[in-house]
Design the sequence.
């Protein structure tokens, strides 16, 4: 695939998360923000002014036909992912799609095929893989700093607080039909499943327990899995009903811990600032080493994810988090859901790609 | 609005609000929220409160599917969580 001289991007969907996803596109020296698009015209106009885009649209079908644009970032509700990705690919635009990829695996497969047929790059972006402490954690891991890795532990603490998110946005997120899955383990979980795969590769099997709070939130939950390379993983999802998160993004925080045969790596301060401890800690040989001279704002991860996409287009190489990678993570989710429903251990190779229903 | 006042209002109002939410019609709720929205804005001058109440009114004017979800959630919610959400709305940082 040819290298681009400049990336001329269009942003499809100007809601809350766009505040973060836009950052890398605004300050990259070889990226121009050409247009923004939102069904809400007032919002599209506001974003056009705020981000100094050349123009705005209220229909993504129009944006993807704009010859000035050569790539798009799609930040739409999940049920619109398939038509938007297919339209963008057919319009010859390289596509970065906000996670999660799809509700059904056949939808994801259609996206991948549309991009292949159009000869455009396609990635499904998630920011945690670009969070600097987690990237450094991976480097330490690969360098053997903690010996042979044995396990990964993740924790999500949800609470109240954070920035304003329109209530209508929350409502479609808690509707499994429109969200495509559950709000915590499916939607937010995409980040965690992505980190599990980033650290240790493919998954052999999963076993899970999901409970529900206030009828619609799949919290508390416990997801466990085993990698093909032998490591085990656990993700605990909790909600403190009166836990106030005094931070500027969402009312949640995460931490990650990897244990090896001779050390432990701990990464914190992901979404929020629940614990004022260094963002990355390495324990080995009886000593703690705090790594605190590292960018650790959650927005940095979105910024770097944007730069990664631009750089990959400029250098003519496939970006990380390809469509196939995303399909794999969706299978991981499907195995989690199957394990929950059937109350048993589920191997990932049990999850096949179902065919597109005829009425779709 | 001071935080303690927000907490007090949340505690006192939660049960009666939930009862009201579960028993009034969608349109009835939407019209009341529209009226309350103006009062709340006049009293607090808070844009977030205005936006939140506008969102609530639009949700109840919209699809029955959404309001069924909201009611399902409220049926099981607790005063503590409502208080935390309200406190988060009142934050000024």
Sequence:
């Amino acid at each position: 695939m040819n290298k681009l001289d400049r990336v001329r991007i269009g942003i499809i969907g100007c809601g809350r998360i766009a505040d973060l996803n836009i950052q890398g596109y605004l300050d990259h020296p070889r990226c121009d923000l050409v247009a923004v698009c939102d069904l809400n015209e007032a919002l599209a106009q506001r974003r056009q002014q705020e981000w100094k885009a050349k123009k705005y649209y209220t229909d993504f079908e129009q944006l993807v036909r704009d010859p000035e644009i050569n790539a798009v970032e799609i930040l739409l509700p999940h049920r619109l992912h398939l038509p938007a990705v297919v339209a963008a690919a057919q319009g010859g635009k390289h596509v970065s799609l906000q996670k999660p990829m799809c509700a059904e695996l056949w939808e994801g497969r259609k996206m991948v095929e549309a991009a292949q047929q159009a000869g455009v790059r396609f990635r499904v972006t998630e920011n945690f893989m670009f969070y600097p402490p987690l990237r450094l954690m991976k480097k330490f891991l690969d360098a053997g700093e903690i010996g042979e890795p044995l396990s990964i532990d993740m924790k999500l603490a949800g609470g109240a607080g954070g920035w304003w998110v329109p209530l209508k946005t929350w409502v479609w997120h808690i509707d499994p039909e429109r969200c495509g899955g559950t709000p915590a383990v499916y939607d937010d979980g995409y980040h965690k499943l992505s980190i599990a795969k980033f650290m240790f590769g493919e998954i052999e099997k999963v076993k899970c327990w999901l409970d529900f709070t206030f009828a619609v939130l799949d919290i508390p939950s416990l997801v466990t899995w085993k990698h093909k390379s032998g490591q085990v993983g656990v993700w605990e999802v909790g909600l403190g009903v009166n836990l106030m998160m005094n931070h500027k993004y969402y009312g949640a925080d995460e931490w990650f811990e990897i244990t090896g045969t001779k050390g432990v790596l701990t990464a914190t301060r992901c979404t929020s600032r629940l614990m004022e401890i260094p963002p990355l800690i390495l324990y080995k040989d009886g000593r703690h080493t705090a790594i605190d001279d590292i960018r650790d704002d959650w927005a940095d991860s979105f910024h770097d994810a944007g730069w990664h996409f631009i750089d990959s287009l400029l250098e003519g190489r496939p970006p990380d988090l390809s469509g196939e990678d995303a399909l794999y993570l969706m299978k991981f989710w499907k195995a989690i859901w199957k394990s929950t429903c059937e109350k048993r251990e589920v191997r990932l190779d049990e999850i096949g790609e179902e065919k597109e229903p005829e009425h779709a | 609005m001071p935080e303690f006042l927000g907490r007090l209002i949340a505690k006192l109002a939660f049960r009666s609000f939930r009862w009201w939410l579960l028993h009034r019609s969608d349109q009835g709720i939407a019209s009341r929220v529209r009226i309350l929205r103006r009062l709340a804005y006049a009293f607090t001058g808070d844009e977030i409160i205005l936006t939140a109440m506008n969102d609530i009114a639009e949700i109840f004017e919209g699809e029955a599917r959404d309001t069924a979800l909201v009611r399902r959630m409220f049926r099981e919610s607790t005063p503590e969580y409502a208080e935390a959400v309200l406190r988060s709305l009142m934050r000024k940082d």
